[in-house]
Amino acid sequence: MYDIAIIGAGIAGSYIARELTRYKLDVVLLDGENDVGNQITMANSAIVHGGYDAPSYKFKGRFNAPGNIMYEKICEDLDVPFKQCGSLVVAHNEYEMATLHELYQNGLKNGVPGMRIIFKEEVHQMEPNLNPDVCGALYSPTAGVVSPFELCVHAAENAVDNGVTLKLNHLVTDIKKLDDSFKITTTAGDIEAKKIINAAGVYADDIYEMVGEPYFELLARKGNYFIFDKEAGSLVNKVIFPCPSKKGKGILVAPTVHGNLLIGPDAEPVDKGDVSTTSERLDYIKENALKNVPSIPMNKIIRSYAGLRNTPVKASFTTTDGDFILEESPVKGFINVAGYESPGLTSIPAVAHYVVEEIVVPMFPDIEENHEYNPKVRKHLRFEEMSDAEKEAIIKEDPKYGKVICRCETITEGEIIDVIHRSAGARTVKAVKKRSRAGMGRCQGGFCSPRVVEILARELNCTLEDIMYDQQNSAYILSGKTKSAAEEVL
Fold this sequence. Notes:
The protein is of the alpha+beta class. The protein is 30% helix and 22% strand. The strands form five sheets. Strands 1, 2, 9, 10, 11, 12, 19 and 20 form an eight-stranded mixed β-sheet that branches. Strands 13, 15, 16, 17 and 18 form a five-stranded antiparallel β-sheet that branches.
């Protein structure tokens, strides 16, 4: 029996699992997908928010700014790229300037450092490619951009290195409350745990209803995005937000941590699991992004995609409506980490500390600290970032680092092999893509994917036909040879 079972291996579940390894607890991390961070974490804005937006009385306002402050150290420990580039909320008129002053005052309440209201001349000095109509902005220097899927993967890797058991392809289908534990039925077998942390993203309300009477409800909202080639990556230096309205934060324009440009998202209520894209919604993204940055080169788009967010539309019993749900539920021993939308990515370091220290630890009176806890992952060798001397040395040590597989991103065979054999390692083409960036470039895997399939099959000692692009039992990549040797002879 496990002490704690965490359901959901997105950024919330994976990071909380890592935080729990500071103590001597037997923890299992469950997910129904073929990889960690494969849903909401995989497709979001990747913004580390300053913290001026959410009301101070909500968990969102309470944990955003502290989470932001923790990012630099965490990304150093987990070897995750992070860029504190700052953000601008831009205004086109006096009415919007008044909104910026409201955000500024709220940011002061939330403890956001370094904010300033700036005016037209300074705005355009910072960002020359903004619409000339922009007359001012709220500047937040602590905002930044990160790679959310790398953060999730490395947090899960560090959790496993510190003793957590990771079980993928374990879709939870039922939960029963026993006397002093829970029996969790999954598609890959039963698991028993003394406590449960429900971090199942947009499905968290469904998971809770397996064991208790519903007291919160989550609405799925879809957001569409465009990613641009690195040629467009320097168009803006900071995250550019429009002035928010009652409909939301609007369409942002932002550099990515890897040097691309990103625009999006919109917000459309959908059925859970719907991540389809439509020309109508994508046109909406383009139209609104151009209002603030008119020179966006739409001919440099390399990918469009959609991701889900989950918004609480019914209040929990201890938190306010529309906020993170972070609490032990009416079913004792069952903890909900739900309604986890923006600024969830930014808040996760502070949220995980709160969940562990304020909720979990009191449940285990005899809990002991884990003095062998190591917060750091083994460094990832990123060939493209090395000096010529470093490249020469690593190739001499391992010639596979001299074989470039992904030409767009300059990713080598050595790097791909490394991410396959790490804790929480890659098992699919998409998993390799998330960890190494092979396939993230201009051709989107058009040239390197066949070689990635070959490397996966070789390193995992399976057939080419066994390798999936993404989800287990999803559409195959290869079904067999197109010609037999006999047919070639004929």
